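[Q] Does anyone have a clean structure-token version of this?
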Amino acid sequence: MGVDLCLLIPFTKRFARLSAEEFIEKYIVKKINPHEIILGDDFRFGQNREGTLELLKAAGQRQGFKVCIIKVVRKDRLRISSTVIRKLIAEGKLKKASQLLGRPISFGGRVVSGESRGEKLGFPTANIHTEEGVFVPQGVYFVKVKMGKETYYGIANIGVRPSFAKKNQKAVFEVHILDFHRNIYGRPIMIEILDKLRDERQFNSTRELIAQIQMDEQKARKYLRYHSPASNP
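[A] Here you go.
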């Protein structure tokens, strides 16, 4: 989108204790020296959120920078914010969250080695490691898979795999890519959540699990037949 520089500041305890005035002087004035600052209308900063837009505007008049306020954006009377979107995702309201985002919910990560259990069952999966974790509710999803300029479709399982769960099992993120048989260990990958197929559940036997995975794949392929790639969100 044409951004030349992004400054990421670790949110340490020391940083959190900065007063609003200290933040303005140390970070905005000395490190950035801006001509104009653009902010949302609910922006607060400094220890205990003491920094207000009025305080920043006053500092701008002294230091020579403008402060531009952007009004909140709403859709269907709902305020669009990262907090609202995260809440919708946590509640499983993925389509509504995608509408507010203006794009499908997506996760970037890297393909890592797993236990190869899916391959033994006849449905090889790519295990995805994400730095920030996955906060979509546990379940089985129909997904779009992007690797570089290549696009595929698949079935993602997000959860603890209860049929094989170990003690203190952490949630895993694995994807079975339809009609794909290449080795992609170590490759960066992007996953877009298109639809939920079902909740994660425990199976009494391997045969029962395989039968369900086959049903998941049939449902995913049916989705593809009725929703061409061009019409996917």
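[Q] Thanks! Anything notable?
[A] The longest helix spans residues 206-226.
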